[in-house]
Design brief:
The chain has 397 residues and is of the alpha+beta class. It is built from 13 helices and 18 strands. Strands 7, 8, 9, 10, 11 and 12 form a 6-stranded antiparallel beta sheet that branches. Strands 1-6-2-3 form a 4-stranded antiparallel beta sheet, covered by helices on one side. The longest helix is centred in the middle third of the chain and has 20 residues, at 180-199. It is elongated, with a radius of gyration of 26 Å.
């Protein structure tokens, strides 16, 4: 689950990480009120207006602007709120901005003695360890830094048995070229950041930039945070931060009816039980010359109602030219799935206008094939994996 910048900063602050302070606003009046409040609390007279969408590169799309007075705060907020923000990480249509973060300006006027760093905490799956990635070249695309100056990318892997050790935090501060007060500030920053990552069950904390001010304060100017969906049951305060407006509407609908669905860009819809079989089915589709349009795991209860819901979800994608149902009947009987397919097909009537290939293996597979073959519906039944692949190729031809 992705979070907005202001939500990520709330989590960081709760673990003692110093942040660029800000207040969320949903209209220009709230933006002006937020700016006035920040001026009273921090003394800042300039403010940064930041679009709150789940995408990076907001500044490149005009979603981050500096306001030097209240009139500019009002006009910039009015301009950004409601716009479709297009960034390198959005589609061509962009994302609609529903709110902005009015933040204090932490770059002191006329001050050139500031430094920007990059830092992220994420899981290194190859090593089964959490990794802190950091660079003295912050404030720009880390991919570009890695491409042009890879020697400026550092990593520190954390042993899960011990967690982040003090010497590792000091090593990070040293590699960033810090000393004195800034060195101590950075070690505290790193330790608090790691604690926030670990205790929020996050999959990513990315801070770009981490700023060193001229008076040697270290703070997070931005925050890109992704939490592990599977751990939200024990982090209910974070689950409430979910902004469904930022997520794929089809995936939101699928989640609401208990289906595991991920939208993809292909032309063959998949309906499968089990994540492993789903991945194999997607490979099968590619080998047959198609492209998977989705990942959809119906689980172990593929009855008529569930199959019908899965059909409706898949068919919301106009790019789908065929649907492959690949079910292994272990817990669920194949004949029950077959009857579910037939009932769902009849209930939906003319809504299904694409070929359907059904491969059922396992308990009562032969009976399931008889049900499909005798249904009188335009359903192609298959027994073997290769047979299903051949039928996918045939209907796409």
């Amino acid at each position: 689950m992705n979070l907005h910048e202001y939500q990520g900063k709330e989590i960081l602050a709760s673990f003692g990480v110093r942040i660029q302070r800000g207040i969320v606003a949903h209209n220009k009046k709230e933006a002006v009120d937020a700016a006035k409040q920040l001026t009273q609390e921090t003394g800042t007279s300039w403010h940064v207006i930041k679009a709150q969408v789940h995408a990076g590169g907001r500044g490149k799309g005009g979603g981050v602007k500096l306001a030097k007075n209240l009139k500019e705060v009002e006009s910039i907020a009015e301009e950004i709120i409601g716009m479709n923000l297009v960034t390198p990480q959005t589609s061509a249509e962009g994302k609609k901005v529903h709110q902005v973060l009015v933040a204090e300006d932490v770059y002191y006027p006329g001050d050139s003695d500031t430094e920007e760093y990059y830092m992220s905490v994420l899981l290194n799956r190859a090593e089964s360890r959490v990794m802190i990635m950091y660079s003295p070249e912050g404030g720009m695309d880390i991919e570009e830094v890695a491409d042009k100056t890879p020697h400026l990318i550092f990593t520190e892997e954390i042993d899960p048995a011990t967690g982040l050790l003090p010497f590792q935090a000091r090593k990070i501060a040293f590699n960033l070229g810090l000393s004195g007060t800034a060195f101590k500030e950075m070690t505290r920053f790193v330790s608090s950041l790691y604690k926030a990552y670990e205790q929020s069950d996050a999959s990513l904390f990315e801070i770009n930039p981490v700023l060193k001010t001229s008076d040697d304060k270290i703070l997070a100017v931005d925050a890109k945070v992704s939490l592990d969906d599977n751990a939200l049951f024990r982090r209910k305060q974070y689950a409430e931060m979910r902004d469904l407006r930022e997520e794929n509407p089809i995936e939101v609908e699928a989640r609401a009816v208990g289906l595991n669905y991920v939208d993809l860009d292909g032309n063959v819809g998949c309906m499968v039980n089990g994540a492993g079989l789903a991945m194999a089915t997607m490979d099968l589709i590619k080998m047959a010359g198609g492209e998977p349009a989705n990942f959809l795991d119906v689980g172990g209860t593929a009855d008529a109602k569930r199959v019908e819901e899965a059909f409706r979800i898949i068919l919301k994608d106009a790019n789908v030219k065929a649907i492959l149902i690949n079910i292994f009947g272990g817990i669920v009987r194949c004949d029950r799935v077959a009857q579910g397919v037939v009932d769902a097909y009849k209930n939906m009537g003319d809504a299904i206008k694409v070929p359907i290939i059904v491969r059922l293996q396992g308990t009562n597979a032969e009976l399931a094939k008889e049900i499909l073959d005798n249904s009188g519906l335009a359903v192609h039944s298959a027994v073997q994996f290769q047979e299903a692949a051949d039928k996918v190729k045939e209907v796409l031809a």
